[in-house]
Amino acid sequence: MDIQFIRQDGRLVIHPDCHTDLVNKPAWPRHALHHRLCRGVYAQEKGAVLAGDAEFSEKGVCVYRSLLKDDEAQALQRRADAAISSKRKDANGDVPATDDPDNIAEVVDCDDELKSLVTAALPKILNDQVNADLERYFQSFYRIDVAQIYRTFPCDKSTVSFLWHRDVAPMAQVHIMVYLTQSGPKAGSTSFLDFDQTRKLARTGYHFPPVVKRTDDIEGVLRDAGHTPSVNRPDLGVGDGVMFASARVLHKGNLPLENCRDVLLLVLLPSLLPWSKDIEDFGSEYMFITESKSTLKTDPYKPFNPNITEEMPEEMFEDWIRNGELFPPDA
Ligand SMILES: O=C(O)CCC(=O)C(=O)O
Ligand SMILES: [Fe+2]
Question: Which residues pair with 188 in a beta bridge?
């Protein structure tokens, strides 16, 4: 498919004649093709220069210390706490709004001040090092699709994201979680496998398990398959971040046993233009959504990537997707 782009107001947009073909592709190949096109544009503009460290590209998980200073992270945390508390009748944001374990993480409804604070924090989080690592990984520009602060409450039952899973998302999708409260064995955290261990498990049939088939004990599954587990459960201080390829590495949240865990999550996807250009052109309002979004069921060429309704057939997990490849073999 020969895809043409045109420049409009300083932005690259897809030629209308090519749009239908692209959107009619099934979701995973559509996002992979978009990523290929983003790589082409980047190579033309930047050449094949690959700065950045290899760790994230090779493992799919990387920790970054002090992305935000203590006081910057604490300012976000205080504001988020006030936003959650103000929604409660008794103004106590330490207690979950629901005792449904499936919804034990609560997204903060950001007011304008909190949105400004988060927006001001973005260049600090996506600092030169993180940006170079991301461009090395994507080999393209990238955009921020979603920015969410969410609070996780202690809960007896781990489910959904708190069991081992890979996100049903475009293969290139990257998450950065910046901790606004300290992580730790009692304070909540996230555990990861790297690309290699995730691929080994995919071969045993554990790749995108539905919620009812997700395990809490990935070490047991790895041992049963004859592998030596090496689970990475980083300890993160306030302002530290962890970045991971959410569709390509197995991961699970660990619920706090006491107190709440607050994090700022950024969801990143390949783009034709640098992330800051979207904010210059459109502002940052678009990224603060409180509902959950399936980034897979989106059209990457619609401004802000809104959800589109799409049936996902059962046989959607082709081998390249299970194995965590960025691209189909023929692309
Ligand atoms: O909240 C957590 O620690 C898990 C997050 C997660 O599964 C994700 O961001 O995809
Ligand atoms: Fe996840």
Answer: 184
Closest C-alpha to ligand 1, atom 2: 253
Q: What is the number of the ligand closest to the CA of 244?
A: 1
The secondary structure element, H or E, covering residue 268 is strand 261-271
Count of the separate structural domains present in the chain = 1
Is 175 close to ligand 1, i.e. is its CB under 6 Å away? yes
**Taking the model in full, what pTM does it have?**
0.96
Q: What is the CATH number of the domain that holds 80?
A: 2.60.120.620
For residue 256 and ligand 1, the question of a CB distance below 6 A is answered with no
Cα(275) to ligand 2 centroid in Å equals: 22
Q: Is the CB of 251 under 6 A from ligand 1?
A: yes
Structural domain for 308, as ranges? 5-322
Could you report the per-residue pLDDT of 108-153, keeping only the tens digit for each? 999 999 999 999 999 999 999 999 999 999 999 999 999 999 999 8
What pLDDT score does 1 carry? 64
* Atom of ligand 1 at shortest range from CA of 251: 7
For 207, residues 6+ apart whose C-beta sits below 8 A from its C-beta are: 166, 201, 317, 321, 322, 324
3-state secondary structure of 107: strand
